[in-house]
Amino acid sequence: MPISVLMPALSPTMTEGKLAKWTKKEGDKVKPGQVIAEIETDKATMEVEAVDEGTIGKILVPAGTEGVPVNKLIAVLLEDGEDKSAVDQFLANDNAKIGAAMQTQNPSPSHAEARVPPSPLNKGEGRGEGAPGTRVFATPLARRIAKEKGIAIESVSGTGPHGRITRSDVESAKPGTVSRAPQTAQPIPAGAAATSVPISGMRKTIAARLSESKQTVPHFYLTVDCRIDALLAARKQMNDSADGAFKLSVNDFVIKAVAQALVKVPAANMSWNNTEMIQYHTSDISVAVATPAGLITPIVTNAQAKGLAAISGEMKDLAARAKDGKLKPSEYQGGSFTISNLGMYGIKDFAAIINPPQACILAVGAGVEQPVVENGQVVVGTVMSVTLSVDHRAVDGAVGAEFLAAFKGFIENPVMMLA
Predict the structure, then answer these.
(1) Reduced to 3 DSSP states, what percent helix, strand and coil does the chain have, rounded to the nearest 5?
(2) SS (H, E, C) 100-148
(3) Fold of 112-171
(4) Hey, what CATH topology would domain 219-418 get?
(5) Measured between alpha carbons, how far is 389 from 387 in angstroms, rounded to an integer?
(6) How does DSSP classify residue 365?
(7) Over the chain, what is the mean pLDDT?
(8) Residue 22 contacts residue 59 (beta carbons within 8 Å)
């Protein structure tokens, strides 16, 4: 009997992806463990391995197709002795099962959704508001409550039969699902020197997450200046003595200082998820990395227990693989605190947007030489400005101030990080 090849879920939060490439073609034999396709998620490109032995009988989703839902049938694998006719029979049976499921889901014309054929081309009643081309199954009561509350029905996850959205699903919908008027694409003016750039899945995810964060998370900001002359001297001495074994960056010291400060002020090592607050017991530091496709935050786990050389090596590896789209989901999903460093671009100070469900993100600026007062005398010192963005639901102002004081202590006295 032919074997289904389904669109895999490469992470717990993945709902769709781009089928970037088939590495096998119809008629090719495959064995378990062989790579048959490459899938692009919102953050990385992952290889898909065959789990069964057979021959690729039919590829149903062409390479380059975007927005392929998880668990969608993308290919059919034939077992030994089967030919193309088995594929046709298999697909006919599969379509019959889908039709039966749809009939079960809409058992009677008395239901509002029963008046709407399940055709993907239908544009009438039954679709989620603001989601053209997407069939959304929801009870009439759920739709009415969603409309009254201004909640976008297509943003709600259904827990009813076959994923149908119920009244309880709408009533427990999290913030960020509020329906808004769809943005109208602005046409390029005639004669303008401009090019239309398609929005990638990664960029869509970044836009959605940051918009939700800025609209639903009550940010407040704390800024402190840190003198880093001692850090720069320690960095030079350590790099000179390493004899090429490693090369520390200022950011490596920042990661370590944040990790140590979270140990000293654990109340800042929090996240918020609307039903509870999570207190983290390790410093898992997400570090913003710019890639050609957009921003990604690989994680240095247990940074409080690692030395500067280990952090430096790990960060270089993570950043390189992030830019190549080769990170595993476990390497960029999670984390307890984020660092965004634009100092290398000459940015003196800025405020970053919190990365939910984390409660804090530290924006790091450039080290700038400027006059400072030292023992009553004006001297030239190198000062680095950092701004902490805080989710006030989970972390109060006093806690944020304590964290920055601890961070400043480690940055200005780097020998404390080596103890």
Answers:
(1) 35, 25, 40
(2) HHHHHHCCCCCCHHHHCCCCCCCCCCCECCCCCCCECCECHHHHHHHHH
(3) Dihydrolipoamide Transferase (4.10.320)
(4) Chloramphenicol Acetyltransferase (3.30.559)
(5) 6
(6) E
(7) 83
(8) yes
Which 3 state secondary structure label does DSSP give 275? coil
Q: Where are the domains of the chain?
A: 3-105, 112-171, 219-418
* Most confident among 30-34, 40-44, 179-183, 375-379 (mean pLDDT): 375-379
- Which residues are marked as active site? 392
| Beta pairing partners, 75 | 5, 59
Tally Cβ neighbours within 10 Å of residue 260. Answer: 21
Q: List CB contacts of 407: < 8 A, sequence separation 6 or more.
A: 224, 226, 257, 258, 261, 362, 386
pLDDT tens for 59-79 read: 999 998 988 888 889 999 888
CA distances from 64 to 36, 228, 256 (A): 14, 48, 41
Residue 140's pLDDT is 65
Q: What is the dihedral of CA 78, 83, 86, 87, to 10 degrees?
A: 60
Q: For residues 209 and 404, what is the distance between their CA atoms, to the nearest angstrom?
A: 26
pTM score above 0.85: no
CATH topology of domain 3-105: OB fold (Dihydrolipoamide Acetyltransferase, E2P) (2.40.50)
For residue 387, give every residue at least 6 positions away whose Cβ sits within 8 Å of its Cβ, in sequence order, or none: 221, 222, 223, 349, 350, 351, 352, 362, 363, 365
Length of the chain: 419
287 close to 255: Cβ distance less than 8 angstroms: yes
For residues 346-375, average pLDDT = 95
**Per-residue pLDDT tens for 371-397?**
999 889 999 999 999 999 999 999 999
Q: Are 360 and 338 in contact (CB under 8 A)?
A: yes
* 253 vs 202, more confident: 253
Residue 259 in contact with residue 416, Cβ under 8 Å? no
Mean pLDDT of 398-410: 98
